[in-house]
Amino acid sequence: MKTVLVTGGAGFIGSAVVRRIINAGDSNVVNVDSLTYAANLESLGSAADSPRYRFEFADIANAGRLAGLFDEYQPRSVLHLAAETHVDRSIEGAAPFIHSNVVGTSVLLDVALDFWRKLPSRKQQQFRFVHISTDEVYGSLSGAGQFNENSRYKPNSPYAASKAAADHLVRAWHKTHGFPTVTTNCSNNFGPFQFPEKLIPHMIISAIEGRPLGVYGDGAQIRDWLHVEDHVNALLAVLERGRIGEVYTIGARNEQRNIDVVTSICAVLDQLHPRADGRSYTEQITYVVDRPGHDRRYAIDPSKIERDLGWRPQRDWVRGLKETIEWYLENRSWWEGIRSGAYRGERLGLGR
Fold first, then answer.
1. Helical ranges in 25-86 per DSSP H
2. What is the CA radius of gyration of the chain?
């Protein structure tokens, strides 16, 4: 049975990947995670009880520790999701983003390359290193157009710059060493188990807690929303059928203004969890000082992955958003533990 090494498997997207692979029943999973503030092993659910699952507490910037794990588990492939991801936090301080996203990726590439070089030829041909990145590396769109695999890199936040650097490292290891890499750049994800500092869970939780719903700037920033389970489908398609050395942009063709996302959340909550006073949650919406350097619009053209790998998003935006809200209403214990410790809903990213 083949083994997949997943970095960042206790995070939002990583845990969804681990759950899916374990539930599929045809692979072992080694979850390598340093359990920084946004990681949560509870997100693995029953997958963590599987005999085909192993958790290894490790920093991907620790070469010796990683080398030992590669030697022990002999993975057939790597899904590299470990990263610091929140733009606001990167504005507060970029050092953790450089450590994890740049240094960590370079160390992981070196260790994986050394491991791959020692494999027999047949196993070398089977090996894949899939690097999961973001559309934010391309900067901001104005007006029409979409990002695709040939878009110029123009990162505007420290987070985006750190992911852009990681993308370039992955490309260089392939071009220089022939290392079998594939890179994906996805749009904004949403769904269950997302850390409460991100827009959708932050607004859901803030609303039911009776807190102001602070919308940045004029709220007209546009994002292309992709359900996390659709993203997992795409990543597994890339892992199984993606061409070595290629890049795939992943999006759902689902552009939404931030203010419209917030008002949609309010409308669903008005139905599912009415306020005690009978008034709409939209009354809690306020407009706050915008994030420094806030990108105006992201949009992904997923034509390549649709054409070459046959992937299509399956989750309807309206239904997916409602189901996500229902999940946060039904799983208060999951996020209440976070809100009492690692993140209390405070505003970040105002600069220094």
1. 63-73
2. 20
Residue range 184-241, pLDDT digits in tens: 999 999 999 999 999 999 999 999 999 999 999 999 999 999 999 999 999 999 999 9
- State pLDDT tens for residues 297-352: 999 999 999 999 999 999 999 999 999 999 999 999 999 988 765 555 554 655 55
Tokens 């997949």 found at: 4
Q: Exactly one of 84, 88, 136, 224 is catalytic; which is it?
A: 136
138 catalytic per annotation: no
Q: What share of the chain is helix, strand, coil (3-state, %, to 5)?
A: 45, 20, 35
Domain membership of residue 60 as a residue range: 2-192+225-254+293-315
Residue 98 lies in a domain: yes
The answer to whether position 62 is within a domain reads: yes
- Is position 151 within any domain? yes
Residue with tokens 């733009």: 87
First to last CA, the chain: 51
Q: What distances in angstroms separate CA 208 from CA 178, 323, 324, one per listed residue?
A: 52, 16, 14
Distance CA 198, CA 50 (A): 30
Query: Which residue of the set 53, 138, 159, 343 is catalytic?
Result: 159
CA dihedral sign of residues 128, 234, 249, 259: negative
Domain at 63, CATH number: 3.40.50.720
- Model pTM score: 0.95
Pairing of strands 255-257, 222-227: antiparallel
| Domain membership flag for residue 136 | yes
Selecting among 135, 224, 229, 230, the annotated active-site residue is 135
Q: What's the total number of domains in the chain? A: 1
Is 136 labeled as catalytic in the residue annotation?
A: yes
Please name the residue that has the structure tokens 């189901």: 323
